[in-house]
Amino acid sequence: MLAERSLPGTHPREGAPRMATKKKATTTGKARGTASAAPEELGNGGELHQLAGGDSPVMTTAHGAPVQDDNNSLRAGDRGPTLMADHAFREKIFHFDHERIPERVVHARGYGAHGVFECTESLADVTRASVFAEAGKQTETFVRFSTVAGNLGSFDLARDVRGFATKFYTDEGNWDLVGNNIPVFFIQDAVKFPDLVHSVKEEPDRGFPQAGSAHDTFWDFVSLMPEATHMTLWTMSDRAIPRSFRMMEGFGVHTFRFVNDAGESSFVKFHWKPVLGMQSVVWNEAVKINGADPDFHRRDLFDAITAGDFPQWELGVQVFDDAFADEFDFDVLDATKLIPEELVPIRTVGTMTLNRVVDNVFAEIEQVAFMTQNVPPGIDFSNDPLLQGRNFSYLDTQLKRLGSTNFSQLPVNAPRCPVAHFQRDGHMQTSTQPGRAAYEPNSFTGDDRGPREAGSDGHVPFPAPVEGETRRIRAESFRDHYSQGRQFWLSQTPVEQDHIVAAYVFELGKCEVPAIRERMVANLRNVDESLAGRVADGLGMPLPAASTPAAPVVETEVSPALSILANAKETFEGRKLGLLVGDGANAAAVKRLTKAVEKAGGVVEVIAAKVGGATLSDGATLEAKQAVAGAPSVLYDAVAILAGPDGGSGLADEPAARDFLTDAFTHYKVIGLGGETDALVAATGLDGKLDDACLPVGTAAETTAYVDRLAGPRHWDRSVTA
Ligand code: HEM
């Protein structure tokens, strides 16, 4: 049958129809462009026609009609006008013209994956949520990580909050835990959310800057909103430039409620802890990563999952009751506050493993619709005004973005448990709902009757007593805007404090209006005098008078859990070594190092002067993943350079190789050096400056010592400033 099909676009004058060839799916990656096409695949104008057959299904229109020719529109005469009668063309262009949907108004840029949550400890005593019913219980999940401010096409390493939104497909409906990688928020009341977002997005009269808070309108707004100060300490910290989605924490932020079978309620905060430990990059590195690989975070997640290196997070809960909540200095309904782990320890209750990348980014990552109001029985809301506002907002935003009230039927959003209701019709209805009655009460029977209420088995809202006058008022218990910011600052290591100071200086330095800088520094004086002094100094401005806090700043104990570096995990697991190899490099050393890093749970990426690879000492060619010009050291957690014997294989003459070493050094990375690297080191001006974290990697013993060192922190003592 295939053999009888004629090549489309062949002019009848040219004689007998040509035969279609059966083609196998290309697995070699060999190009099949016109240059390599068989003559019988070429059309009248030399264009390539790939015909169905073998494993290739027939192309059809959206309505299923086989398409004759996808390369030429229908025209009158070889060089004549295109005809309106070409419905296949019309349909194709029509669909293309409508491909884009509005991007998310915030968190537009993101990436996600499927996974599973396994409960490791029953929480039946405090919640009837089936996801926590018993140890061993598994629930399917989908996670989307995101940046907040940037557009869909922005870069991954913006200094920004990261979204960490998880959909649990529980057997009593979807639970969306729509959190961030920072446990507090900028504002206390959702009514200010549009203002916050307008301030951080591109300035409307000029359309920039993209994906960044380093501009006047953002700092203008937050400096006028002292409640935002605590959150800015977090966004100026290394939390806002994570090394990987796999290496950051996640937080539900708000205080939620658990409700058990007996109808008793407790408050709960949710925490995700990455099994790989937390890690961040440094700012100078982030800036360069954004140029070298704007998709750094999504590629990292995709690569890890497709390699079978599944990222995991432990889910922890802080559970406390109303009486306990009343003892805190702050209000647990205020989303600008956290509950230090030292006050209420985190109880680990399960593990989530992300084990499957999506098949289609648009269908799944773009169309997934998270909504804070999606909670199953056993989970309920507190009166946090930010949460209450969010519960109101997300339904609207999904309708705007996805265009139909039936977005819950999209595969990524559809609950995995049975769904039955009397909601009917609407755009893009895909469910053929049976039965005669589309209302209740009704007196029909069987399938005609439809579903019935669950009663006390359903989601019963916790009957929290409500009293008071209807007023637009901020509770007095929300007045303290600085104490927890101070606690965060004092809980950071000196290196982390340096980074926070540098970040404020960078960001405020981008503000053109001096009064904004002054107001912000005036607020920072309430957090810590040395912080404010150092920022003012970095900006080259006199220290302004402190602003007057609405409530006295309370001195609180430091919380070591708030520091990334104080809690760094000693491991190279899940990390990546950039191995720059020169021609003539010792083959045994390359092999030994690769094996040792892989044994430590890391990944080795080989880089050479040319992507064709390097010729090793044994004459074999080592394939390179990247040429050094496209693989700066910012893409790696640590680097090693294995050069050849004479003159380091010319690496010293390669500007990208020099940058590779200089940047690795500037970014405090552990550096391995093997072969003749003196010329390269000299060319970078680093001779005489190499320190304890620049280690030889020639012999077996050296390799072991180097790989052991990789598990440790960056060499923060290095006298550079990045
Ligand atoms: C604690 C504070 C907040 C957190 C942790 C948070 C978190 C998130 C996350 C993670 C997303 C992205 C979801 C995804 O990946 O699809 C998101 C989107 C969004 N958030 Fe929030 N958000 C917060 C506050 C708010 C507030 C106060 C509002 C409005 C009142 C709001 C409105 C939105 C909207 C409209 C979207 C876009 C949703 C979409 O189009 O899919 N958020 N938020």
UniProtKB/TrEMBL annotation:
Pfam family, one: Catalase_C
UniProt keyword annotations, A-Z: Heme, Hydrogen peroxide, Iron, Metal-binding, Oxidoreductase, Peroxidase
Catalytic residues (positions): H107, N180
InterPro entries: Catalase, Catalase_AS, Catalase_clade2, Catalase_clade2_helical, Catalase_core, Catalase_haem_BS, Catalase_immune_responsive, Catalase_large_C
GO MF entries: catalase activity; heme binding; metal ion binding
Composition skew (Basic and acidic residues), residue ranges: 446-456
Catalase core domain span: 60-448
Gene Ontology biological-process annotations: hydrogen peroxide catabolic process; response to oxidative stress
Cofactor: heme
Enzyme class, first EC level, given as a word: oxidoreductase
Gene3D superfamilies: 1.20.1370.20, 3.40.50.880, Catalase core domain
Segments of skewed composition (Low complexity): 26-38
Keyword set includes Nucleus: no
Superkingdom to which the source organism belongs: Bacteria
GO cellular component, one term: cytosol
E.C. code: 1.11.1.6
Keyword Iron set for record: yes
Amino-acid positions noted as binding heme in the UniProt annotation, renumbered to this chain: R104, R144, F193, R390, Y394, R401
Residue segments, region Disordered: 1-79, 425-465
Family: Belongs to the catalase family. HPII subfamily.
Protein name in UniProt: Catalase
Protein species of origin: Knoellia locipacati
